[in-house]
Each structure stands twice: as structure tokens, then as C-alpha cells.
Amino acid sequence: MNNNKIIILPFLLIPLFFIGACEKQNRMNATNSSRIPYGANDHDKKFGNYIIHINALTTDQLPPEIARGYKISRSKNRGMLNVSVRERQEQMEVPVTASISVMAKNLSSQLKSIALREVREVDSAAIYYIGELSVGNEETLIFDIDVKPVGSRETFLVSYRQKFFTSY
Hints:
- Strands 2, 3, 4, 5, 8 and 9 form a 6-stranded antiparallel sheet that branches.
- The chain is α+β, with helices and mostly antiparallel strands.
- It contains 2 helices and 11 strands; from the N terminus they run H-E-E-E-H-E-E-E-E-E-E-E-E.
- It has a single domain, classed as Domain of unknown function DUF4426 (Immunoglobulin-like), CATH 2.60.40.3340.
- The radius of gyration is 21 Å and the shape is globular.
- The chain is 23% helix and 44% strand.
């Protein structure tokens, strides 16, 4: 009789596991629904006075001298995400620093780690953030990006989708 209790207990725990998983998925969907999506050919989004530019590509598309200069490994199987933030001031746009975090996931919801590093051009005409990650052929990644420009009270939540082609 005690053996029956041991066998039944795991079956009682399985529904609890699925309920917890569904709640977690619902929280993730709520977070994703509050994000501003970028379209397939949409690389700029405006948030008040701020413009956020996002682009992703395979690193083999970079010219060799550029890749060397930024210590980026050129490969069909390496993706690069580039994020920049500009602020409209009077009649011009100026680059601004920002706190940016990224979570990348594929269509199977597998998470990919990506750390961004700040790059400043010598003449301060550009500030951008780049990060690299591995990509597969025809893999679609969804980048959930949180951007908080320095001096802003707001954090802008965006979602950028990119399909990578690693064989030509």
C-alpha cells in the first residue's frame, strides 16, 4: 500500500509542473506584448526625442578590415547585433550612451547569450553597442532589447526579429 502512494505522488506533481510552466509562459507573453516590435525592414524606432537603431547580420558580411578593427570573428555562423541610440536636440540628432540589455531566443524558445559592448568612434560622432552570438542557417532570432538612455527616466522595450542565412 505504501508503494502505491509513492507511484501516485509523481503523477500528482506533474500537473503542478505544467501549471507553473503555463504561468511562466503567460508572464513572458505579457512582457513580449508590451514590447514595441520592429518590422522585417524596420531598423529605426522613435520614442519621444530618442531614436533607437537596430541591425543584425552574419559577421562574414563585414569587410575584413572592419572586423579586425573591432576584434570581431568573421564567420557565416556568427551573428552580430548592433544597437545605437540618438537623441533629437533642436535641429540635429546626437548619439547618447545607454544601458542596454538583450535576451535572444529562437523560434523554439531556446535562449542565446549575447553581451553587448560599447563602441565609441574617435570623433564622438557615433556611439553604438555590438554583441556576437552563434547562428544557424535560416535561424530566426527574436531579440528582446531593453534600452534606457542615460538621463532618461524611461526604459524602452523593443523586440527585433532577424532571420539569418549562413549558407549561400
